[in-house]
Specification:
With 897 residues, this protein is of the alpha+beta class. It is built from 24 helices and 33 strands. Helix 21 packs parallel to helix 22. The chain binds zinc ion (2 copies). The site of one zinc ion has 6 residues, from helix 18.
């Protein structure tokens, strides 16, 4: 739908769509902006232009329109107390990681807190009516503006004032009256300064009028009245009209402080601390001038660089003032903003990574580090995290508990960035040497594949500027999750299946066949669990045919059969495979236990990323920054089994979704969003509470045992834990023990062998000198000393042994010493070495043959192998152990004849 069309239509009937009671009472005039043609309402008869086109735009900088000054925390207290005083419930912020909607990674507006997607429709669920909430929102589209424009943030607090017009809530008149009084009574702004601009809002199939309110050109809030649905002209009024007033808290602080930028008053002491630390000489008049120029001219130029150049010129800044003041200031603002974003995101369980919303977090951290390095700022990230949290805890107490976790994650991620720099540098150098300037697509590809930020390339002068579309393109790519569509089956006019597994869960039951087509069967009732939440489907038999798959289509369960089909209208008997279900159920419940055990052992950032539960194996993928160590795995397993042993009850309760969220928080959405209003909460005491539709054991000891079989870092930020439970775990342990036992036995045998060898060496060392002494004395003829046969002739002496008492060590040592003592001697030692027989030959310098090598060659031939060596020493052998004597005979003849 065209917004302009709706606006034209609504503005044509201002009494109906825009004129609220307050305008009447106070005497607001409706005027047309001569510049942009928009209609606005004002009490100032001299005002002829809309706030954005007026001369007083941004004149609050250096000259705020309020007597009182409120910083960020104080501004919220003012807003909160005003709305509470006026009958609103103050609701705590929701996580910035949008766990309750699968089309968003991050919470991008306060109203998102209360939106739930049901099918293709967005419905509102309010925990109170009317209410006010200080919702932190994350937006990554305008990153290049952050720190530069004075008012763009990657995370900001959107005050949400929400109301449903009924007996408790209100509609337009009261809303605008409240907003007017908030500005005048609570903040002390002169009513003549307040301007309301007519606008419209449309999205998600509904639309309505809206009134933006401005003070001195700064839009402080926008009250949206969602009232209609359908196409303009063919629309109907919504059953549930909603007021969604969103206002930037940063702007409320800014307008009362009148600082040059919103950054100067929204980060508590951080900006000042950093300015002092870096040592920038601030001239507020000059800065006010400069940032007013920036603010006023943002819409007038096609890119930020031109806006800056224009502002530098108009504010009369010298080149030196730009490099010494503006550039480092922009860096400080950027660092403060980006770090605050990371603190909220990590506290709420998100991790920087290269997938999904993690991309945006990684890029903001890399921008922080890159900025610090580019400007040569020696800053301590941990110290800055402390400053932020100490300041923010006044409004967001919960951040305090996550302080260490935030530091841990940022440290891990900063280290990772440093490690990747060498590779990044290489790629950048390569581009530079080729003289290539990458375009936006190249930049996105480079960031996604190698983590190279355009900021880094700019720093290395590979690109002159970051293309203005880069961050919005990247943000679009990684803002939402795309869903896989289920195959459409002809299931019209079939009533919802009665789910017996949520009731008595009979494993034998009768049911009526409502539909039978192709290989699919729909029953009026079923105990067959359909694939869902990572739990694999039940198997079994329907009318005697095998059930091979079960899927859920909406609220209808479809069974896939193999081997035959029953007829429509028939009553069939059904049997669920209990053993399979039992295995799956234990594994499923173990997933809950392991998930919470992992979080306890590793840190609060651990969430279930996905899970898979089969009969005999299962896996749980958790969000974690690094691969698990053996110690961590052991600790997780130990904690999990202690929960099993405690035999804790697994409780199942149904809650209204809003009640469950308020009672347990968003931790319940471990398995993703739950698209129904009444949700099933599965709790194992306080240890684990999740919204889950699967099958679970009644008490934890039924699981018997949980065994982690393997863990693996499967992608950036995700670790897979493979495990087994129940009987499979017992079998696994048994098998593992058997393997261990076998290994222990093998180890013992090896040790024994080594020991014997050592003993023999020792014996040989002692024995050899003694043997040599005796041999040297042997006369002509044959004799034997120990196990050595000796044949002495006029020509020389030949000693040999085939005894199994001697090993390689002995033969080598003995032979060597023998020919040294008796140069006329030769030696041949033959011994078994596993399946082969080996020979060691020594020939003395003055021996008859003088060539050990040729002897080795010849006798190896006999032994069925090969051998060789030099004149003094040679070795060989073969496979034929029966030829030992023949080999010796040959050696003897070669040595002596
Ligand atoms: Zn205008
Ligand atoms: Zn479950």
């Amino acid at each position: 739908m065209d917004k302009e069309e709706i606006l034209a239509k609504f503005s044509a009937d201002p009494v109906k769509y825009y004129k609220v009671k307050l305008f009447e009472e106070q005497g607001f005039e409706r005027k047309l902006c001569a510049k942009c043609g928009r209609f606005f309402w004002t009490l100032d008869s001299n005002r002829n232009h809309c706030p954005e086109d007026s001369d007083d735009t941004y004149s609050f900088i250096g000259n705020p329109p309020t007597k009182k000054r409120f910083d960020y925390s104080q501004a919220w207290k003012e807003v909160e107390s005003f709305f509470v005083k006026n009958g609103h419930t103050s609701v705590s912020r929701y996580p910035v990681v949008c766990r309750w909607r699968d089309d968003l990674y991050f919470t991008i507006a306060s109203v998102v807190d209360f939106q739930r997607v049901m099918g293709s429709k967005v419905v509102f669920e309010f925990p109170a009516n009317p209410l006010v909430v200080p919702q932190m929102c994350l937006r990554f589209k305008d990153l290049e503006n952050v720190g530069v424009t004075g008012r763009h943030f990657s995370s900001f607090c959107m005050i949400g004032q929400l109301s449903i017009p009924n007996s408790q809530g209100y509609w337009k008149d009261e809303c605008i009256d409240l907003d007017f009084r908030l500005l005048t009574d609570q903040f002390g702004i002169n009513k003549n300064e307040i301007v309301f601009v007519e606008d419209v809002w449309e999205g998600g199939g509904s639309f309505g009028s809206s009134l933006e309110f401005y003070v001195r050109g700064l839009e402080l809030g926008n009250a949206v009245f969602t009232e209609f649905q359908g196409e303009l002209g063919n629309h109907t009024t919504l059953d549930q009209k909603v007021i969604d007033m969103g206002a930037g808290l940063e702007r409320f602080a800014w307008i009362t402080m009148g600082t040059p930028t919103a950054y100067d008053c929204c980060f508590g002491p951080i900006t000042k601390n950093l300015i002092k630390k870096v040592g920038i000489d601030i001239d507020s008049d000059l800065l006010s001038k400069y940032f007013v120029e920036i603010a006023k001219n943002q819409g007038r130029f096609s890119n930020l660089l031109e806006v800056k150049e224009h502002a530098i010129k108009n504010a009369g800044l010298s080149h030196q003032q730009v490099t010494k003041i503006i550039n480092p200031l922009e860096g400080i603002y950027l660092i403060a903003d980006h770090l605050r974003t990371l603190i909220f995101a990590i506290s709420d369980g998100a991790l920087p990574s290269n997938v999904g919303g993690g991309y945006n977090l990684r890029i903001v951290l890399r921008r922080i580090i890159g900025t610090m390095q580019r400007l040569g700022l020696d800053l301590d990230l941990n110290e800055m995290i402390d400053w932020h949290i100490d300041y923010l805890k006044k409004t967001y107490l919960e951040l305090k508990e996550k302080r260490d976790d935030v530091k841990t994650i940022i440290e891990v991620e900063a280290k990772r960035y440093e490690e990747s720099k060498i590779r990044m540098q290489k790629i950048a150098d390569n581009l530079k040497s080729k003289g290539q300037t990458p375009n936006v697509d190249d930049l996105i590809r480079m960031y996604e594949s190698d983590g190279i930020t355009p900021d880094y390339l700019k720093e290395l002068e590979v690109i002159p500027e970051i293309p203005s579309t880069f961050y919005s393109r990247l943000s679009d790519l990684h803002q939402s999750v795309t869903k896989k569509e289920k195959e459409k089956l002809p299931l019209q006019n079939i009533p919802d299946t009665d789910l017996l597994y949520y009731k008595d869960d009979p494993h034998q039951f009768d049911a009526k066949v409502l539909k039978a087509f192709e290989k699919f069967v729909v029953l009026d009732r079923t105990s067959f669990y359909a694939r869902g939440g990572g739990q694999e489907p039940d198997h079994g038999r329907i009318a005697g045919f095998d059930v091979v798959d079960v899927e859920k289509h909406g609220n209808i369960i479809v069974h896939e059969l193999n081997g035959g089909m029953p007829k429509e209208g028939e009553t069939v008997s059904c049997v669920v495979d209990s053993q399979r279900r039992d295995g799956i159920t234990k594994n499923h419940t173990s997933t809950h236990i392991l998930n919470s055990s992992s979080r306890n052992v590793l840190g609060s950032w651990v969430w279930q990323n996905s899970a898979f539960k089969e009969e005999d194996h299962a896996r749980l993928d958790i969000t974690h920054h690094s691969a698990l160590t053996e110690k961590q795995v052991k600790e997780i397993e130990k904690l999990a089994n202690s929960i099993v042993q405690k035999n804790l009850p697994v409780k199942i309760e149904n809650f209204d979704r809003g009640t469950a969220e308020q009672k347990y928080g968003f931790r319940i959405y471990q398995g993703g969003i739950v698209p129904v209003k009444s949700i099933r909460i599965v709790s194992i005491k306080d240890f684990d509470v999740e919204a889950c539709g699967g099958t679970h054991v009644k008490k934890t000891r039924e699981i018997e045992l949980i065994k982690i079989t393997r863990t693996k870092r499967i992608q950036d930020g995700v670790v897979r834990i493979e495990f087994v439970s129940g009987k499979t775990a017992q079998d696994y342990v048994k098998q593992h023990e058997d393997e261990q036992e076998k290994m222990r036995e093998e180890q013992a045998a090896k040790e024994e062998k080594d020991k014997r060898r050592e003993q023999r060496k020792e014996q040989a060392r002692e024995k050899i000198p003694f043997l040599l002494e005796q041999i040297m004395q042997s006369k002509i003829g044959t004799s034997k000393v120990d196990e050595i046969e000796i044949r002495t002739t006029e020509a020389g002496r030949f000693c040999y042994s085939t005894s199994d008492q001697y090993d390689e060590y002995f033969h080598i040592n003995f032979g060597e010493k023998l020919i040294k003592n008796d140069p006329k001697a030769s030696y041949c030692g033959i011994f078994d070495d596993d399946s082969t027989v080996r020979a060691i030959i020594y020939s003395g310098e003055e021996s008859k043959n003088k060539n050990a090598g040729s002897i080795a060659k010849e006798i190896s031939k006999i032994l069925g192998g090969s051998g060789g060596g030099n004149e003094r020493f040679a070795q060989g052998g073969g496979k034929d152990k029966s030829k030992k004597d023949e080999a010796i005979k040959k050696a003897k003849s070669m040595a002596l004849e």
